[in-house]
Amino acid sequence: MMGTTFNGVVREFIQAVMDSLPGSAPEDIYWGYNFLTGALTLSLAETGRLDMLSDGLCRSDDVAALRARLGP
Question: What tens digit of pLDDT does each residue of 18-37 get?
Fold first, then answer.
């Protein structure tokens, strides 16, 4: 389902990244995309791990704090 739903737009995104970084190895771009989506997936998963590790200073369900740290 993920492939049929998102592969088209993901391939366009990856191609745009490749076009903006001429000379980069394609495998590095694909790995970079994998790291990016993995980090975003974990950050949005609300696992509670962030809450535990920070002793409640940060909350994994605090979307505003996440968004502020992702940048403009």
Answer: 999 999 999 999 999 999 99
Q: How far apart are CA 26 and CA 9, in angstroms?
A: 17
Per-residue H/E/C for 10-21: HHHHHHHHHHHC
Axis crossing angle, helix 2-20 with helix 26-44, rounded to the nearest 10:
130
Q: Among positive and negative, which fits the CA dihedral 10, 15, 19, 24?
A: positive
Taking residue 34's Cβ as centre, other Cβ atoms within 10 Å add up to 10
* Cβ pair 21, 29 in contact under 8 A: yes
Report in angstroms the alpha-carbon separations of 59 from 2, 4, 47, 71, 72: 28, 33, 10, 18, 21
Tell me the one-letter amino acid at 66.
Answer: L
